[in-house]
Design brief:
heterodimer, A: alpha+beta, Heat Shock Protein 90, 5-stranded antiparallel β-sheet, 4 helices, 5 strands, 36% helix, B: alpha/beta, Transcription Regulator spoIIAA
């Protein structure tokens, strides 16, 4: 069984749909409740960032199978203004949007693997993976 | 418009969040509760989150805001029923819900509110 879905991330309702999709995928792959909760929460943070800072984009939900391991990979991509200083954006409490500044750093802590690519003026792509 | 119901019981307001809230619904709840505290002269707010499978930083901020606004309006807030998986995730996310009282269930939450009011925690005698 392979999961590979791409969902729009444009409205606050889309965040709910992404959460539900990620939850269903994590359940299907056999993640336990705490692991499910962590990846769904990370997805919620990143989806909101995609809207608030990227002006909307897409979320891709993929199942992974590598060397007998099962994982769930989430990719959030936008064509927004990009992040000028990624290191700063990853700091707890740093925000340009009036939030708590925990979205990016929190999502990183809730994942096993975290990657961010961003170019000013071109957009941002954040990829997180959680292994079972 | 979609709304989360707020029940009044004596001097307390009770809210049970039973749906996966989108952000606008969370903001509406925050506004509604603040208004009801004043209108109903409530002294305590109990928020049951036992149905919530996820509390992200947005919902966490909303809960903190409600508690802060309630405090300014002379009411206590207690959040009850947080699921263990949610608690573990919240801490790892970096949210500690400082300034928010929590209880394991509704019974304990009501007890906490009553005790807080009886002891006048943070309150002056008033004539409401």
């Amino acid at each position: 069984m392979t999961i590979d879905e791409t969902l729009p991330v444009r409205s606050s309702n889309d965040i709910v749909v992404v959460r539900q999709m990620v939850r269903a995928s994590a359940v299907q792959l056999g993640f336990n409740l705490v692991e499910q909760t962590k990846i769904v929460t990370a997805a919620s943070e990143l989806a909101r960032n995609t809207i608030d800072y990227g002006g909307g984009g897409v979320a891709r939900v993929q199942s992974l199978r590598q060397a007998g391991r099962i994982g769930l990979r989430l990719t959030f991509e936008d064509k927004g203004p990009g992040i000028a200083d990624i290191e700063l954006a990853l700091k707890d409490g740093y925000t340009t949007g009036g939030g708590l500044g925990l979205g990016l750093s929190g999502a990183k802590r809730l994942s096993n693997e975290f990657a961010i690519e961003s170019r000013p003026g071109e957009g941002t792509r954040v990829t997180i993976t959680r292994w079972k | 418009m979609e709304r989360i119901p707020i029940l009044k019981m004596n001097e307390f307001l009770l809210v049970s969040i039973q749906v996966d809230m989108h952000d606008r619904l969370a903001m509406t709840l925050q506004d509604d509760l603040t208004e009801r505290i004043v209108r109903d002269r409530a002294r305590g707010v109990l928020i049951d989150i036992s149905s919530l499978e996820v509390v992200d930083s947005f919902i966490g901020r909303m809960i903190g805001n409600i508690a802060a606004m309630a405090r300014v309006l002379d009411a206590e807030t207690v959040v009850v029923g947080m699921r263990p998986a949610v608690a573990i995730t919240l801490v790892e996310l970096g949210l500690s819900l400082d300034g928010v009282r929590t209880s394991l269930n509704v019974d304990k939450g009501m007890e906490l509110l009553r005790t807080a009011l009886a002891n006048g925690d943070g309150h002056h005698d008033d004539d409401r």
